[in-house]
TrEMBL record:
GO cellular component terms, A-Z: cytoplasm
Xref: Pfam families: DUF842
Lineage of the organism: Eukaryota, Viridiplantae, Chlorophyta, Mamiellophyceae, Mamiellales
Listed name of the protein: PREDICTED: protein FAM136A-like
InterPro entries according to UniProt: DUF842_euk
Originating species: Bathycoccus prasinos
Family: Belongs to the FAM136 family.
Superkingdom of the source species: Eukaryota
């Protein structure tokens, strides 16, 4: 699971540097141009600012949704591992606790490896 956490940190760092920062710059540049026309109404100015921010907000929503779905998948997988370990413990009794814990951790590590591979696909979807 530690490896998955590192992969997720690398994923978000890369997304920040390659996608969000350039997009934020475009948003700021666009917003500054909204200030150029002092004759426009307050409503027009606000609409201009909102339009500039729309792309950034949409991208953030897409990324947040993807990461939420990803997190739910990982949590469901880990819960399944814990359920299997619990079943193992119930059939083997208290003496099998160490084995059940080891099996649960192995299963959770497998979840992390499997879902870690999905991060590249998520990145392609959110950047594209």
């Amino acid at each position: 699971m530690e490896q998955l956490q590192k992969q997720l940190e690398q994923f978000t760092d890369s997304l920040d540097k390659t996608t969000f920062r350039p997009l934020q710059k475009k948003t700021f540049d666009c917003s500054s141009k909204c200030c150029d026309d002092a004759k426009q109404s307050h409503e027009t100015f606000q609409r201009c600012i909102q339009n500039c921010a729309a792309t950034m907000q949409e991208k953030e929503t897409v990324v947040n949704n993807e990461l939420q779905i990803f997190q739910q998948k990982v949590q469901r997988c880990a819960q399944t591992c814990n359920d299997k370990a619990q079943s193992f413990l119930e059939s083997d009794g208290i003496g099998g606790m160490d084995k059940a814990q080891r099996k649960a951790m192995e299963c959770i590590d497998e979840c992390a490896r499997d879902y870690g591979k999905e991060l590249k696909a998520i990145q392609r979807r959110v950047v594209g």
